[in-house]
Amino acid sequence: MNQITIKRPFSLEGIGLHSGKAARIAVSPAAPNSGINFIRQGRKIPASIHHLKETRRGTALDGISVVEHFLSAAYGLGIDNLEAELLGDELPALDGSSLPYVEAFEKAGFLEQKEIKKFIALKSPIKIIDGGASLEAFPSRGFKIHFMVDFPAVGVQRLSFDAEKQSYKEEIAPARTFGYLEEYELLKEKGLALGASFENALVLGKDGYINQPRFPDEAVRHKILDLIGDLSLAGNPLHAEIYAVKSGHKLNAEMARRLLKA
Prior knowledge:
By secondary structure, the protein is an alpha+beta fold. 21% of the residues lie in helices and 36% in strands. Strand 15, helix 4 (184-189) and strand 16 form a beta-alpha-beta unit.
């Protein structure tokens, strides 16, 4: 299996989910073995766990916030090498999912490169526990995720995703980021969710979804989306079976760190 980049450059723009400011990303093909790199103010920032700076309400690298949806889309489509130049310090939220990125990648086209794709293959299990949350990775020939969440108003949701048998575009990419309406003012006081709206987020209230969900279990699907993006910071695609219980960006990042060591 060979490495993949895109055939043609593309750009997307919108507002940042947390900053509320204008954001633009211009994506270009990249050479084999270069991986995915962001460029901000002339500085190259690899999409690597080594450059992780923040996991509060999103995954941030050096000077760049909310990278997980873009990285999830690239991983979900099997893209290895990209260069992404940013205007602003946050990626555009678009519709709150990774689907606009997936569609932009597909429109740009895929280019198979000569070099062989490199995988991270586990030799032994990895388990991380943080209070009531846990994340486990087991050796596997493919890439599978089993995720369970339990949120107020929507309750327990469970979903398994097998990358070889199911479509990332259809099953995972459309799931939007979500939050509770009652938390909105508090988040704004902390400088977060300044660009959030009913157009780029699934909003929850005390009695469940306020705006129309794309899936009855959209919350757990988005958690899988985020996990895929975060795990991509290990640097190479995985051969692993992942079991996640109430995991978030902090735990996901720690797993990426341990996968890289493995």
